[in-house]
Specification:
The structure is a single chain. The chain has four domains: 71 residues, no CATH class; 84 residues, no CATH class; 63 residues, Type Iii Antifreeze Protein Isoform Hplc 12, CATH 3.90.1210; 67 residues, SH3 type barrels (Roll). It is elongated, with a radius of gyration of 41 Å. It starts with a helix and ends with a strand. It contains four helices and 24 strands. Strand 21 and strand 22 form a beta hairpin. By secondary structure, it is of the alpha+beta class.
Length: 324
Amino acid sequence: MIRLLFILVFLLALALPHVAPLAAEQSPMVPAVLNEIVDVQGPHVRVGDIFRNAGARADEVVAYAPPPGKQVVFDAYWLQRVAQTYRVDWRPLNRLDRTVVRRDSRVVNQGEIAARLRQALIEQEDIDDMIEVDLTTRDLRLFVPSGSASSIAVRDLVYDPRSRRFSAVLLAPADDPRATTIAIQGRVHPVVEVPVLANRVAADTVIGENDIAFVQVRQDRIDHNIIVEPGNLIGKAPKRATQPGRALRSSDVRRPVLVEKGGLVTMSIDQPGMSLSARGKALDNGSEGDTVRVTNIQSNTVVEARVSGPGRVTVTPISKLARN
């Protein structure tokens, strides 16, 4: 008996060095932590989205994610059931514990929606592409999953060419079976291209061809004063500093001032067989072709002269002279 007991003790001593390392490798379990707000990118909610330190089953799906731009709230009772089912070391502190799950999304604004409808109208209704789409619903926004294309499907498009009104159903995103659908109405407006300033131009600065760009303006917003031909803008000068991209009226520009009131000018008198020049002082502002009053500095007489260039005027032989 003593010999048998000695053998058992010896075998146990041999086993202990092998058991100790295994015990050292084991780490204590870390309690899971509830994520109170969760942003998911895909269509599913997983255990690891809701709990940190969720364990081996963190990647398992427990719910559908809400549609883009929406959120869903999971209460303490639902969370506890998930923890028990998937063996997560977590218990609610009270019944107010909850998790808010949001679908990570991107806003498709009204401009993008109008552009998609414009494309559909041109393709399906064979409408000229010089149009602008005006939506009846203001501040309209759709949501698509973050990182995806702003795909919008247009369905049931109906267009009346007489009234230029249309109706349609939009789906966003287009390839999602759970896509948001919305009925929409609007109207088509013909547009024309008008010249505008491509950059800021200071007052009385001559507008050149490189200063011109074009924008589309609705036909019903163009009156007879709007400049629609670039030739009526090039070579003119704005009366005041003008912001780029804005349609201009005839009253916004003028011929550039070549002779300034109070400035010195060169006076020329051209007659058959004779050409004279003198220095003068302008009494008026004048653009090319304008008639201005000029004082001859030498004779102190006032004559009428036609502006012929920057700082130059031409006195005609019939100009009436006057003395100050």
